[in-house]
Specification:
The chain is α+β, with helices and mostly antiparallel strands. It has one domain: Immunoglobulin-like (Sandwich). Helix content is 19%, strand content 35%. The chain contains two helices and ten strands. A hairpin with a 2-residue loop joins strand 9 and strand 10. The longest helix is centred in the first third of the chain and has 20 residues.
Length: 172
């Protein structure tokens, strides 16, 4: 009798699970891969919501850094080429914003800036140069081991919605 109850329970569980898995709308969230040479930079996902306000951007930076040290972030040389690859979506261009962060993942540079780069996407890949700005001298009080923490925010239009991604790097 107990074996029959267990079997019945398993069958009901599998049936309910299969029904619930079919309830999704089948829409995938956009995914990207960010490269600096052969090094893969970890993306932070914002989706199409909560990617416009400075507080929302900073919150994702802070959440990403939980349990990590800024000194362990990947180092990107100024003048280096960074590639952004759209894995499961199409877009015509991406905008790159470069923010300088303090040790608490707060944006200390100007938030309302023009994009650092607007890159065309060719075959799913966009490339931009990580430039050193003359203004970086004014942020020397925020260096970590002599390097500035940069939050690179990547925005693109997908199906008439603005999606955002970012990555954190140390500029050298």
């Amino acid at each position: 009798m107990k074996k029959t109850n267990k079997l019945l329970f398993i069958m009901i569980f599998l049936l309910v699970t299969s029904l619930l898995s079919g309830c999704g709308n089948g829409t995938e969230e956009p995914e990207i891969k960010i490269h600096y040479g052969s090094e893969v930079l970890n993306p932070i996902y914002y989706g199409d919501l909560y990617n416009k306000e400075q507080e929302d951007i900073e919150k994702r930076f802070k959440d990403f850094m939980v349990g990590k040290r800024f000194s362990d972030l990947p180092i990107v040389a100024y003048g280096g080429k960074i590639q952004v690859e759209a894995l499961n979506f199409e877009t015509e261009e991406i905008e790159i914003y470069d923010y300088v962060l303090d040790e608490n993942a707060n944006i200390v540079s100007e938030y309302n800036i023009s994009p650092l780069s607007i890159s065309s996407v060719k075959e799913g890949i966009a490339e931009f140069t990580f430039e050193e700005s003359l203004d970086l001298e004014m942020y020397q009080d925020f260096t970590i081991e002599g390097k500035l923490v940069h939050g690179l925010l990547i925005r693109c239009e997908i199906d008439n919605n603005t999606f955002a991604f970012s990555t954190l790097v140390l500029g050298e």
